[in-house]
Every structure is written in structure tokens, then in C-alpha cells.
Amino acid sequence: MTKETFLSQLGSALSGNMDSGKVNENLRYYSEYISGEVQGGKTEEEVLQMLGDPWILARTLIDADNGTDRETVYEAGGTYENQSAGRNRNGDAGGTSYGGKERESGKWWKKLLLVLFVIMIVLLVFAIISGVIRIFAPFVLPILLVILVIRILKGKRR
Length: 158
Prior knowledge:
Blueprint (H helix, E strand, L loop, with lengths): L2 H12 L5 H20 L4 H8 L2 H12 L4 H6 L22 H60 L1
Helix pairs in contact: 1-2, 1-4
């Protein structure tokens, strides 16, 4: 696939689903992005392969434009731009890209899983201890009471 074919398919997929100004802005952005990556030493084919299918990219852009939370779009597997490119929406190097957001949002659920795992371990330990107490309580409590009575009686004899 060539750059022109990619941009043509992207434009076709975006038109009718997005304001024409935003369609042109996205086409210009991806045209500049592809050119910049090619100037950076990558082949056009490599850049287009990293960007993926233009129809999927268009779906992601449309979802983001329609107010869908970007994190939701990323969880669905969409990419707004290549994460390794390190470019922002203006095509400048550096800055926080939307790809960085994906990495940040991916951490919260891992922390949540860790907290839930720790809670489950604590509950499991508590359940095991209470189970052991329930099993041995009918035997241990009378023995402890007998020992207590014996000590009390021995204490009174002295």
C-alpha cells in the first residue's frame, strides 16, 4: 500500500462520519507523520504497517471525535497514532502522545487487581484460621476451662 492509497482510504472512511475540517486535519497530520517517519529513515511500507489498517484507524478517530473516552477507544485496540513515534498531534517530536495515555491508563487496573488479590489472600487466611478454630473449639475450650479451674483451685490452697 502506498501513502496516497492509505490517505485515500482513511479519507473515505472519515468523510460523512466527521466534520470535513477534522477530516482534512487528520489527513494532513497523517501525511506529515508518514513523511516525517520516512525522512527519519523508515520505509513508507514500514510506517504504513505500523499505523495499521486505515479503516480501523478511521474508526478510532471517529469514536474519539464522537466523545468516546480515548481510554475506552484504546482498550478496544484502536490506535490514535503510533506510540513509538513519540509525536504529538501537531507532529512535533516529544511531548505526551495519546499512546502515553494508553500506558498510564493500563496501570490502574493492574493496581486494582493487586489490591483485590491481597484482599482475597487476607480473606483466605482468615477463613482458614476461623475454620481451624471451629474444628478445635469443641475440644480446646473444655480443656482450657479445666486447666483454668485447676489453677484457681491450686491458687486457693496456697
